[in-house]
Design goal:
The protein has about 325 residues and is an alpha+beta fold. The protein is built from ten helices and 13 strands. The chain has one domain: BirA Bifunctional Protein, domain 2, CATH 3.30.930.10. α2 packs across α10. Bound molecules: aspartic acid and magnesium ion (MG). Aspartic acid binds next to β8, β12 and β13.
């Protein structure tokens, strides 16, 4: 695991190259990663469908998108807003607002493969873990609580690794990860963020990820208005899934649905209410239903599975912070 340490701490790694600069061996490696990606998406989408989820198509432009604020992990250099038909729209940072509305009004269980555009600060190119465009496998379940979502994720992660070890043996062997990739024991362990801060300090993630040998949950993370916060205890009913040596591959929460709390949190956090008019209107009318969900960073998941050094390696057209290629 020495390599990953270098990857994440020194910044001395080769950035993923554009396609036209790849050697024959590098193209072969891309192809094997692509096969793992295909099998991963096939397994996960099939699992969602078998569990009664509807498959929603993504959106690109909307008036409302994820504020990504306040979020301890966010580092956005620029927010894309543009004018279309005389209205201001934003490119999708995440489909969180759409998920809450869609699960409340139409589909009790839904998932989306959603492109997220997050113009990360350019110094994040060397973390090996950030992209300015990535795909989120985002899902939401009306009436669910955190433990429903966490045990569902436990089972699909375990099922996925089991499936890949059986059905992508050749690919994993080529990538030299077949033996090191182990089917995790369930339930995955759960840690409270407060405990991690006491142990490792405020910047706990880099230390924590190096100390675990199996994916693990972290709960109670203060962040955006849409995650449920218990005002009486100060606890946040949310969760991140951290994978060993890499970091966070999924974040999610039980959601706020009550108008008064949504407004109070937006005002407290300096989030502009005028960017969430429909959500607030529906909440005021009692049409937003309690739900819980999460989103999996697809490239991060496959980066971890394939033992890649930079998450951009699993993209055919790498979107590395600060680096624009032709395609
Ligand atoms: N997908 C996340 C969620 O479901 C939102 C995010 O992208 O941070 O909470
Ligand atoms: Mg979030």
């Amino acid at each position: 695991m020495q390599k990953e340490k270098i990857r994440l701490e020194s910044g001395e790694i080769d950035l993923p190259k554009p396609l036209e600069q790849l050697s024959k061996n590098e193209i072969e490696r891309k192809m094997y990663i692509a096969k793992v990606m295909t099998k991963t998406l096939s397994y996960l989408t099939q699992s969602f469908i078998e569990n009664g989820f509807e498959w929603l198509l993504p959106v690109v432009f909307s008036k409302s998108t994820d504020p990504l604020w306040p979020d301890p992990g966010a580092s956005i250099e620029k927010r894309i807003e543009t004018e279309v038909y005389g209205e201001t729209v934003r490119t999708t940072l995440s489909m969180i607002v759409h998920k809450i509305v869609a699960s409340s009004l139409v589909m009790p269980k839904l998932f989306i493969l959603s492109p997220n555009v997050r113009i990360e600060k350019r110094d994040r190119r060397f973390t090996g873990w950030h992209l300015y465009e990535f795909t989120q496998l985002d899902f939401e379940i009306r009436g669910a609580n955190s433990s429903n979502v966490m045990s569902f994720v436990d089972s699909i992660i375990k099922g996925l690794i089991f499936y890949l070890k059986k059905n992508a043996k050749e690919e994993l062997e080529y990538l030299n990860v077949y033996n090191s990739l182990s089917v995790p024991e369930l339930p995955l362990k759960v840690y409270d963020r407060i405990w991690l801060e006491e142990k490792y300090g405020r910047d706990w993630e880099p230390f924590f990820k190096d100390d675990i040998n199996e994916p693990a949950w972290v709960t109670n993370i203060p962040r955006e208005f849409y995650d449920y916060e218990d005002f009486s205890t100060g606890r946040w009913d949310n969760y991140d899934l951290i994978v060993p040596k890499y970091g966070e591959i999924l974040s999610g929460a039980r959601r706020e649905w009550e108008y008064d709390k949504l407004v109070r949190k937006m005002e407290r956090d300096g989030v502009r209410k005028e960017n969430y008019l429909l959500l607030l209107k529906l909440a005021r009318e009692g049409k937003i239903k309690p739900s819980a969900g999460a989103g999996i960073g697809v490239e991060r998941l496959v980066c971890w599975i394939t033992g890649s050094k930079h998450v951009g390696e699993v993209q055919l057209f790498p979107k590395i912070p600060g680096t624009i290629y032709d395609l």
